[in-house]
Fold:
Amino acid sequence: MGDERPPCALVVMGVSGSGKSTIADSLATRLGWRYEDGDRFHPPANVAKMSAGQPLTDEDRWPWLQAIADEIDRVCRAGQRAVIACSALKRAYRDVLVHGRDDVRIVFLDGTQKLIAARLAARKGHFMPPGLLDSQFKTLQPPETSEHPVTVSIDATVEAIVDDIVRQLRLSQ
Ligand SMILES: Nc1ncnc2c1ncn2[C@@H]1O[C@H](COP(=O)(O)OP(=O)(O)OP(=O)(O)O)[C@@H](O)[C@H]1O
Ligand SMILES: [Mg+2]
Structure:
């Protein structure tokens, strides 16, 4: 992979239920970095739409993604580091988040629909509209080689997944 700078931000991506919040939080704790949930950056109009059960359009998503990109710039400029959970299912979404920075890395949580459906069914305190996971998998554009993602199998314990990410990014000391 060569000469890129050490990362200041990691974007943990994947479909709903792939474990973004769980893994990003645990990874941040392991590294001593800040954990951010990307959903926190939705403008109020998006929050209102989502609470009303209306799907977001890509037009709705650009300001949200731009707000996360701005936060990444702020964190990195301040010499801080963050792990951000964000579904980032499409290449175009990730291109806004990464915006050409070699110190922002994509971590893709890779798993089968069957495994993720089982985890969602067991998740407490969340209502999953039927068909949501299907549509997430239809929308998903797995990261391309040119994005030099870190891809991890989620068919493992949280500890093992975090180990795998840290090892692939050579962040272990
Ligand atoms: N490696 C794992 N092994 C077992 N269970 C897991 C693992 N990772 C996550 N889970 C469980 O799977 C469920 C989904 O995880 P989580 O909520 O982190 O996914 P998410 O990608 O953040 O979903 P959403 O997009 O809806 O926010 C949770 O109940 C979580 O505890
Ligand atoms: Mg989550």
